Amino acid sequence: MKIGFNDIGIKAKKYQKLIIKKTLEIIKSGVFLNGKENEKLIKNLSKFLKGGYVTLTASGHDSILLALDSLNLKSSNEIIFPVNSYPTAFPIALYKAKLVPVDVDSNGLINPDEIAKKINKNTRAIIVVHLYGLISDIKKIKSLIKKKKIILIEDCAQAFGSYYLNKPVGTYGDISCFSFYPTKNLGALGDGGAIWTKNKKIYKFFKQAVGYGEKEKYNSEFISGHSRLSEIQAGIINVYFKDLKKTINLRKKALETYQKLINKFKLQNKIRILFESKNSSPLLHLLVIECKNRDKLKNYLIKNKIPIYIHYPIPTHLVPAFSYLNYKKGGFPIAEKLSKNILSLPFHSEISKKEIFFIIKSVADFYIKNEN
Question: Architecture of 8-102+109-241 per CATH?
Fold first, then answer.
């Protein structure tokens, strides 16, 4: 049985005719940037997010860079973020602001109690990462910064389609960042991203910042780079957008199947799906389990031709590139514990019940063989 870890190839083949048709339309139009597909995607996203202002970017990484760029950061400014969110740390570091990692809870989400310990007069922003599609305790985090001049940024790269208090994730912060990397809940066939805000002044900045700071062609009001989403990638996302509700339902059914089979094989004491549904309805991007004998289980599954990954194997403070932060092993115990025990299993909208059964049966077989 050949099992795909994600549905990039499967989905591309499934929508191949529509993607080719859309691509040919764009080629015929002769417009490859900032055209009708970009406009359509902005409308689709704005409608889905129930208002606000959307700016498209070249990637989720660029979205975070632009969010930070809008803050006019100084070297003394501090940015709080979850220590286990590897990709989020890099754009912060590029801005030379002070990185302030904090520990997470048992589901890998930023811990509000740890945030409270780190807030001070230099805190400029808190980046809340809705890791794996799970939703952080936004209500509690917002209460911590009430009446403080601290910007709340939601990193929704892995959480498009998740809801919190019956509203889409990405509509609670001052700024929200999205990624359309191919593996995401809503992905392109290449890189892509978006940035959202309700603030007109910040939106005006984003509109200019994605194109050299130009107010109009060749008339830049400030120095900036550029970050553009191609028409072809926007068109592909629009094709996928039509079936978004169906995709959401399929992912939720896949999660239910996993949960039922874990119970059926009585694996509750061996593995646990990282999942948090307080005030929220998560749409998982990754199905991550905390498990006993992680490395042995990983090798066993690989031998059985089941693709697995670890998201993420090393917390940021222990990654060599961030050694200059001078944190030591043991500084963030929950994140460190999770990094040693988590495993990402195949999970996507196209995965079949038969495939999930094979995966969980293989997990059960492993623990039967290794009970002692």
Answer: 3-Layer(aba) Sandwich (3.40)
